[in-house]
Amino acid sequence: MKNREGCEIEARNINYTVQIQPTSPPFKIWSTKDDEPTPKRFADDDVDEERAHPCARRVLKGVNCRARPRELLAVVGPSGAGKSTLLEILAGRLAPSLGSEILVDRRPIDRPAFRRSSGFVAQRDTLFPLLTVRETLTFSAELRLRLPPSELRARVDALVRELGLSGVACARVGDGHRVRGISGGERRRVSIGVEAIHDPRVLVLDEPTSGLDSASALQIVDLLKSMAEARGRTVVLSIHQPGFRIVKLFNAVLLLADGAVVHHGTVDELHSRISSAGLVLPPHVNPVEFAMDSIEILRLQQPAKDRCTLQQLFKTVEPDPPTHTYPYCDYANSRVRETVILARRFAKNVYRTHELFACRTVQMLVAGLILGSIFRNLAYDPSGARERREILARETSCGSYRVSSYSIANALVFLPFLLVVAILFAGPLYWLVGLRRTPASFAYFVLLIWLILYTANSVVVCFSALVPNFIVGNSVISGVMGAFFLFSGYFISKDGIPSYWVFMHYASLFKYPFEAFLVNEFSDIGRCMEHALGVCVMNGVDLLKEEGLGEKDRWRNVVIMVLTEGAEESLG
After folding, report:
1. Do 275 and 368 have their domain in common?
2. Distance between CA 53 and CA 284 in Å, rounded?
3. Region annotation Disordered: residue ranges (predicted)?
4. How far is CA 45 from CA 177, 259, 304, 395, 425, in A?
């Protein structure tokens, strides 16, 4: 595999502001002098910003930095210093405030193209736990590379060896909780491999050692160091508390505090900075850790105007820009091939989720038998029914595939599974209740159950994508489903709904399958619903006419259900 030289990334005057909700003071009938707020003191650079935006918080304040090929730049600082925000900006995931500038090889960044030619490893591992290590890397390679199968397998094998995962290549990834698999350090290396499989020129990692023991953390940083030197990559990582041996692997350190740069340079330069501040570095304490504990002293060491650091050098020294640019990478596969690859990955996950398949099967079969036994031979009476998303966001943000391919693949895999579930549910229920005994009616009944199951799945996916957390999502889904059921026409007919709520009747997801069930069952003109003096005074068609329904609604409602599912999949 031919190595590509990494990119030089330069950040100039990076600012990033987030809006915060103003907090209201507690209500008091009277106030005393002690209750008066103490004026907050700001640095001179922050006064104008705070006055102009009283409900804004500056996460990054005029940050300048540079990351070079074949080097490992470590971004360090206490919690809340802005490390993760800066990394997301450097990786092209976030856009900085106006006036900020990101240069790649001294040219303005093209964020979509840069995301595809670089790699970003988030702090949390977002992997399919039921896939093996080799399968995870293979699917990532298939989605991001245009290579023949033999070359692709060779690329995966080489990366497995480079990551030191040969011994666990056939083991499941696991998640550390429900699914047993590889260790946390090995799982982190898999996450790095997923982002390194396409040989990115830049690799950005948000706290890759978080949650790992010291030995595993050292292995991860040593791996990244070797990737930077051997592959010519530019590697930028954030780290909270680096150990002594880890610090020795850093080529440069960017020390942040309260969103501003305290130091940018080598570890030796940081050591000199500590000494010039009159501080003594204790034995067996690394300079980075000591500097983080002494940030306030370092910030006040000397006036900013007298400092001559890399921050000023970036502004005064501007070499001529190189003639080459980083490549723009389009999608590696056609839409059809993307769909096939994603469908294979979905199928492997579904096949290995034996518990889910068994529970769904037993659940629907038992439910159908119970409902069928309760309403057995019923007489006719007119009065008388958070891992995939994160993976999708990560993979689509870096251009691995199109969202539409994901939706189509999801449907291709789950629709057959849901069809089996629908048949198991509908079979005993339909014939025990004694509904219309024709093959066509039964097939249509199964079709409706099938669409209802897929609609329910789509609704959950849609609301999971739109709401911030499980509690809110559960509340919203319960409320919306309750409203849809109320206005479906089962409890209150359309004529009984106030005019200003009629729109909810048409928006209800239950309206269309409910009406379709009625049409399927009562469209037989030969079935009498009510007798008087031995004469049939109401048949099934008459009942449907009273409800404003007819044969025309049979397939119209099916089309509406399919279109609704498509819209929900798009939103999700």
Report:
1. no
2. 45
3. 25-46
4. 47, 12, 11, 39, 67
